[in-house]
Amino acid sequence: MSVTGSHALVALLRAWPHPLASRAPESEAALEFVRAAVRHGLAGFVAHAVGQGGWALPDEAAALLRRESLSGAARALQVKALLLKSLEVLSSAGVVPVALKGYGLARRLYPDPLQRATRDVDLLVRRGDVATAVRALGGLGLSVRASRDGRHAATDSHHLELEGPAGLVELHFRALAGWGQALEGDALMARAVDGELEGRRLLWLRPEDEAVYLALHASHHLLQRLAWLFDLKLLAAHGLDWTRVVVEARRTGLPHLVWYGWSVARRLMGALVPEDALAQMAPPPWQRLLSERFFSEARLVETRLVRSKPAWVAAKLLLAPSPSAMARYALRRVDTLLRGPD
Length: 342
Description:
The structure is a single chain. The protein is α+β, with helices and mostly antiparallel strands. It contains 18 helices and nine strands. Strand 6 and strand 7 form a beta hairpin. It starts with 6 loop residues before the first helix and ends with a helix. 44% of the residues are buried.
């Protein structure tokens, strides 16, 4: 039995690490499969999985997959270099950050860290270390971009963007801000665990905190990249204390957003998530039904919400854990647009 088009990508991700039961897509469907892998930041991993699974793609699709996987690996190497340099200058300034997402996550979860697309460095530091970190990163030729949140930055921003010839570093003082609410960073840092990356000291989020954070991040972006859902599947395969995941999800005040990420990862990717854990984080039944519509396989594979601003806004409003907080956030965004950043 063959799987056609971009839905073959979901079949491959769901089957991993087991052999594929279906045949490789053919002709135009094979090109659609590769384009979907690129669109969702997984060209490198898909090239690896196709080789492991014995799929023989048509020449044009195989060449495109190879080209895109090599291009993604080259970008990942640039990000890795900036990450290592950032860790070095921050260490010299007495700051040890948490590495969020990106290359550090791929190094721990993927067969090869260059298989997952990444374009920037995300680092979480304590609020009290932000100024020191900015000065240290300035030594790499990075300077702070103006925040798009303008006068509402204190409420709605969660990071500073520092850019320069070496690339982009997102320096987080909150782990996340979205849906009109925020996940503060200092408590996460207090529970973080020591790690190292090629001899450089850094911190990793505790696994259960990472399970919550990654799901929140994916939901903040309405699950529009399958790589984020696949990350969750790979993280769950390493084993999690789901009782603690539920506790930490509830502590954020955003358990419904955690549910969206993990429930779809379970449904589409086959992530190992206990049903009772999901039940303890679930939103009301009407939001669960809406999430199934917004986050259907077809809509996610085709990134339909990204392509439609009205649908994006509707999903954000209807799935929000706190409609009042979301409405206040929307009013602040309108205020910034009408009155300018300052």
